[in-house]
Design a protein that fits this description.
The complex is a heterodimer. By secondary structure, chain A is an alpha+beta fold. Chain A contains ten helices and 20 strands. In chain B, helix 3 packs across helix 12. Classes of the chains: A alpha+beta, B mainly alpha. Chains A and B meet through helix 2, strand 6 and helix 4 of A and helix 8 and helix 9 of B.
Chain lengths: ~350, ~270
Amino acid sequence: MTEVTLTGLTGRYPGATAPALERLTLEVRSGGITALLGPSGCGKTTALKLIAGLMRPASGGIAFDGRSVLADPPETRGAVMVFQNPLLFPFQSVAENVGFGLRMRKRPAAEIAARVAEMLDRVHLPDLGRRRPAELSGGQQQRVALARALILGPKVLLLDEPLSGLDADLRAGMRDLIRDIQAEMRITTLVVTHDQQEAVVLADRVALILGGRLRQHDRPEMFYSRPADREVASFFGGRNFLPGHAAAGRFDCALGPLVLPGGLADGEGLLTIRPEAVRLGPGTVNALAAEVTERHFLGTQTRLRLRVGAATLEAALPPDQVEGIGPGQRLTVHLPPASLWLMAGPG
Amino acid sequence: MQRPRQPLLVLAGALLALWLVLPLLPLLIWSFARGWRFPDLLPRQWSLHAWETVLSPRSGLLESLWLSLVVAVLATALSVAVGVPAGRALGLYRFRGKGAVELIILAPVIVPGIAVALGLHAVFLHLGLTNALAGVVLVHLIPTLPYMILVMAGIFANFDPAFEAQARSLGASPWQTFRHVTLPAIFPGVVVGALFAFLVSWGQYILTLMIGGGRIVTLPLLLFNFAAAGRNDLAGAIAVVYVLPGIVILLLTARQLSGSSAALGGLGRP
């Protein structure tokens, strides 16, 4: 188990004017899966290359368990990177690919063969060792690439968009595989992704980078219930933002006065509630008279756009609850206080 | 992959083979002839005399053969040593002045060799490289390098360096990465490039003559000596020996040279 500490890490490609990654400071929790989440082009992959030692940082530090690894070349650093593209060596069989790292370490052939068989078994591809990579499907190649990295028992595993190349039905399998193996081997894992869904399902900690800055580093569910600011909330699908003033457990905004949960600070603030937290019916508090303006069926949920006085509110409800409800209809909804969250300043 | 053998394809192949082989036939006949005069379709008398002479130590054939081989192998080895990194730079990286560099590398192919050699002769005189094997090998690089570099640039343009990064991350040292990942991927290209370099060096006449000052008598120089002396029988025999390596190399590497260029640049970009 290894803790990875990045301090002010900056990466720049030769000839580029702006750095690809600027001053990232992050503690990657030992033995867990951390997702580095951010839009395309925010320098996430650069961060992985820097940690793997495949690129030299322009400035900043990288430490494993408190020891700087900047002087270590990639082959001795103990951080193995799995690229988005599986990059299996085409002139080697699947088994040779998986055993590559051990061969480079000059391990005895018998040991390599045993470990390769074990690893192929672990990624559910026990019979494919003699195949050529080109004969495998994309999902199988991805699993071979994972086995090829895990066989080395790295201190740190770096995964670049491990699920994005896969079809929807393969993603769940790959996700479970990564989670299971990681839980078993307790390798500190850093996953880079632009897909918040991928981050949430894979990681037990998410670090969100927006606008070149680390905005929030938290458990996945906190990005939904306790977002740091409006942009973070929007990135995770938040739609309802209401500026107003909080005082004595109440919040005054365009929806009217609302009862807040305890523990929130008084003053100017931006109130948010997840669309899926809006409930039908009067409830006990925070009941609102609303008029439906739009209705969209989204598969597992139906989105209603509501007009409440001069304000609008978006609600996501189970489809069976909204049967027969359409534009023009008046209804009552309520906002459970525990689902309300107040962010600093009207942003 | 078995392609249907169309009659037209067979005919074209046969014509091509004839076109390549036919000019060599008279050489072979000459080498076994005792006199071969104009109206005769074939010599009236056959003889092994030319071969006996040529293969005897006196003719200098074996020395020239050996010398040609040494020069060509050294020139090829140097071409590979310079051409692989140079081709990598041209194929993989973008840098300022790349177009100019490409033009300079191509220049020896465009500019007549004799013009280059005249200028170089003066330089080599200064450096004491004339009349010496080293000078001849070096001057052969002028025509061999462009081929080597262009072939390798093509290979590397189709090479994804992420494979090397992946190998490093999996614990391979820089040398191991080259040995186990880069080399297998570019090997077919190295073979083709080296083949070109070898044959180009093997065929050099003017450059060898000028820089070698007539002291480094490679096979083409020897051949020309006998041809100029009007000894068609001896020249024929030497010429047969002279074309042999090209044919052997061609046969040995036909698989790499032929259309199955999927083998070229094994680590294609995705």
